[in-house]
Design goal:
mainly alpha
Amino acid sequence: MTNLFYIVRHAIKEKLIGDVDITAQGIIEAKKNSTLFSTIKYQSNLFKPSSKS
């Protein structure tokens, strides 16, 4: 059995401290990732929970 892992980094955000918006480029990249992953069949996903509330 072969396991394949996809590692995705968070989108590009404004260079400020705190909970800031992602940049226009970050939105474009997130949409591309969404399109890509919508075509892939996978069994599970793992993610690091956000500490933001």
